Amino acid sequence: MIIRPVAMSDLAELKTIAAESGPGFTSLVNDHDFLVQKIERSIASFADANGQQAAGSYLFVLVEPNTGSIMGTTGIEASVGTRRPLYHYRVGHATRQSPTLGLSRHQQTLTLCNHYKGGSEICTLYLRPQYRRAWAGKLLSRVRFLFMAQHPERFANTVIAEMRGVSDPSGESPFWRWLQTHFVDLDFATVSQMVGTGDNGFIADLMPEHPLYTSLMDEPARAVIGKVHPDTRPALHMLESEGFRFNGFIDPFDGGPTIEAPVQTLRSVRQSSHCRARIGPDRTPSKAPWTNGGQGKTLMVANTSLADFRATITTAARYLPAHQLLEIPESLANSLGLDIDSMGGADVWFADLEAAGQNQNRAMATSRQSDPIKEAFRAH
Q1: Which of 229, 237, 323, 380 is catalytic?
Q2: Domain around 300
Q3: CATH code, 331
């Protein structure tokens, strides 16, 4: 599996992915002109040596090397909420009381806002069902952090992730269904298409400016506030293990949570390393413990190129910390397109996926005992 920047030759497969991902996946909508523009903008961002943060849009594809098929997508928007508003509902509470009567009522509220202005966003993560295999999803998710570690000047200090909210088998959102009934007479698929292509002016025009009392919503809508789509739960747990947290903002269309973190505190950013690689012959990885200098650890490895960025996962590598040197086989060096110098070496970035995976397992175990999003709702 190889991660690389999207190319215009990927348009047909990207349209297929946009169609099969369904309503709610607003960062990759099934619209020909939109997809062409998205690819063009990504190509320009990867080609921009100066790295203008406000203009950066980076779309990666995961490629099956034997067939060349696109297995999935993942992306980063360098700056959101500035060129056009990024709307959310802020989850809050209001208390009304009468001292005279000794009565009070505590209510949960949703207030429309444009809180995130200028932060970076990870987005467009989709792994096609037929390619859901070991490490594929982790590579799609974590490669973004390795890229951000390489190019911190291109991104904001804070990164957010809008998690896909709950929808029924027909693709309809219970949260939006209530809003549609009372405020905006557009179905969820139409709204998703409009928002995904940048047409979100109707939000300010039609959606209520005053706080919504969730007690007035029907039970299906109220039940999905801050919840994620079942297919999104693994991604949520993975991001929580990286250090993302919910701070009280939800999507105004499906009610899914938006989570955030300082970039430099992300686990995969902190644990990534920039070092020299020594290229050697291909061989079967040994099973010796990593601490004894053996091979077999699952590493995410990337070259240091921008326009020709490549990343993959491998167990056929060995890190020598005393020498700050990563030994990799020739076939891996070729697949990453490493720029090998006259000394037979090259610069690489890498991160240990297994260490992150262990932390993710702990995060998942903790979340079964105490849901961090539920805890955040109590705090708000």
Answers
A1: 229
A2: 267-357
A3: 2.40.40.20
